[in-house]
Fold this sequence. Notes:
The complex is a heterodimer. Chain A is an alpha+beta fold. Chain A is built from four helices and twelve strands, in the order H-H-H-H-E-E-E-E-E-E-E-E-E-E-E-E. Chain A has a six-stranded antiparallel β-barrel with strand order 1-2-5-4-3-12. Chain B has one domain (4-166): Orthogonal Bundle (Arp2/3 complex 21 kDa subunit ARPC3). Chain B is mainly α. Chain B is built from seven helices and no strands. The radius of gyration of chain B is 15 Å and the shape is globular. The chains are: A alpha+beta, B mainly alpha. Chains A and B meet through strand 1 of A and helix 6 and helix 7 of B.
Amino acid sequence: MLGRTLRVPLLRKVAEAWPWWLLLLALVGVRLSKGAGFMDAYALLSRPFWPGSAQSEWLRSAQHLRDQASLQMLKRDNERLRGLLALDRSGGGRVSAPVISREPGGWWQQLELGKGSVDGLRAGDPVLAPGGLIGRVSSVTPSTARVQLLTDSGSRLGVWVARVQRHGLLVGQGTARPRLQFLENDTGVRPGDVITTSPASTLVPPNLLVGVVQSVNESLAPAPDAAVQLSAPVDAVDWVQVVTR
Amino acid sequence: MGVLHRQRWCGATGLAVPLLTLASPAFLKIAGVAPSWAVLWLLPWALVDGPASGAIAGLCLGLVLDGLHLGLASEVPALMLLGWWWGRIGRRSVPIERSYNLGLLALLGALLLGASVLLQLFWSGQLPLVEAGLHTLVAQSLITALLAPVLCSLLLLRWRRIADLRS
Lengths: 245, 167
């Protein structure tokens, strides 16, 4: 009887405290799930104060600035070293010239520029467009210059495949895609390789982007050759830069 | 020889040939290839003015056009031959007026001109890829032949009227 009177109020107390038991159960749940509900609730509440896009932009611009600064430093360093090696003999002046006539199709692939010998242009000067090298000046008049595009069937230019460290000859074919001829048999060139002007070149500025290898014909007899897509859009170019010497 | 070459401004229309070659309007191209403006101007000129005048006009046009393109290949021989040939055709009793004939003559002229350029590129070792050369040849001949009935017949009628008035 005594035990019964004792036990019943105790049980009733325990039963009456059910919200606390529930809370305890919930806390155990939190502990076992490594804080699942808490972290989600915290994330939900603190969302307005998260680091926004502005912060990532600051970071990106800082990175951009660092990249640019290091690029400039490398460029200056490169020029100094080239000067020491006496490789860079070009004066380095660049003249912007408008394209006044364009004939990328037809028998001859050529451009006419609206600047000539008065502005310092000479036959043989390399011509750059946004995207890379497109050709060389073949003849000048006092106020115009004629450019032989790299796609012209008379165009020949020594180029460099940086990934495999090989020289090649870029031969125009009268089509939009010139052909890259190699001197050795085992070149290892793959589609996607970037082609630049030769780093040791004195005729054209070194390390200029020319194009990308589109396909390689390995089965050709003396040495393989490759089709090249020029990186500069010749059909759409309105202004070019001529590197004068 | 006819009388057309004595009209200075008639000859001056030949200046349109180098100008159009330089401007090379994009809407008059087939697959990126422009028509042969020299053929389009020379055809009516030679038909009206005779073989000697046609050959001389071909020489003049060829000299100017050779100065406008790269390399050493010349258009002079083909243009002179075409001028002389069309001049002889123009001396026949039945005058050529139908657009079909004009288109056919222009087609043959553009083919001959293109073939002569292609041969010279072949000899100088600057031959383009065979497919590219054929593409240019066919495209240029087609667009020239398509434009000939429109442009040549207008010039032909105009110049024939002037020649009739002056003679």
